Amino acid sequence: MNIWPKPFLEPEVLKQRLLILSALDIVLCEEEWLRRYQFDPHWDENTTFASVSNGSGDDLYILFTPEGVIVKGFDHESEMSPHAREEYEVWPGIYEQVPPALLHRLNDEALTKEEVTFCLWRESADHVWKTGEVHNPQGLDDGSDFLLGMLYDNPEDYLEWAEDYYEVKVPLDVIGYVFTNTSITKEMMMELNPEVDLEMAMKELQAIGFTVAKSTS
């Protein structure tokens, strides 16, 4: 196996980032099927599930388990997609070296295990992210830069995406607060989306374990 060659978030930071992005989606978009980010802290026993989907057939699934964290990405336009192969097979090397306890977690039908163009993982005792010895002498694009790039590192990048995707103006100061504090107030929710159903949004935020704080004023 290899060390994942690109910078990537520490597991707890990754989980927090996914929680934040999912919370913002809940406030900005009432229709769950239109959201890009999903987060479920009680997906399975001792397992947190998160996903990122752009609605165009590209997705990222992340599982936080007692054994560690596994990340599976699928870029449907990648030449490494099973759909681009005659035998519809997973690209050689993607799964062969994944620790069995983590790989087993992908067997759930909802995770579409065979739909994959890259995979990385980190066992609970690891200090680095790892990936398989993927046979890719041509340097084909596996979609990892594209998909992992959706885990925005700063409020400005998220805001640029959200304003384009939801076609609304989004206050940067609110996004910055949420990114920094992993919490939001009712007033901020109204600033983000004046049409938000506060009661419904607060129930959803509670379900994913996101803090609704008292007013900062």
Your description of this structure?
By secondary structure, this protein is of the alpha+beta class. It has one domain (2-208). The protein is built from seven helices and nine strands. It has helices spanning 11-28, 100-103, 144-148, 155-166, 172-181, 186-192, 198-208; strands at 2-3, 37-44, 47-53, 59-65, 68-74, 118-123, 130-131, 183-185, 211-213. The strands form two sheets. It has a seven-stranded antiparallel β-sheet. The protein has a two-stranded parallel ribbon with strand order 8-9. Strand 6 (118-123) and strand 7 (130-131) form a beta hairpin. Helix 1 packs antiparallel against helix 7 and helix 4 (155-166) crosses helix 5. The longest helix has 18 residues, at 11-28. It is globular.
Write the layout of secondary structure elements.
Blueprint: E1 2-3, H1 11-28, E2 37-44, E3 47-53, E4 59-65, E5 68-74, H2 100-103, E6 118-123, E7 130-131, H3 144-148, H4 155-166, H5 172-181, E8 183-185, H6 186-192, H7 198-208, E9 211-213
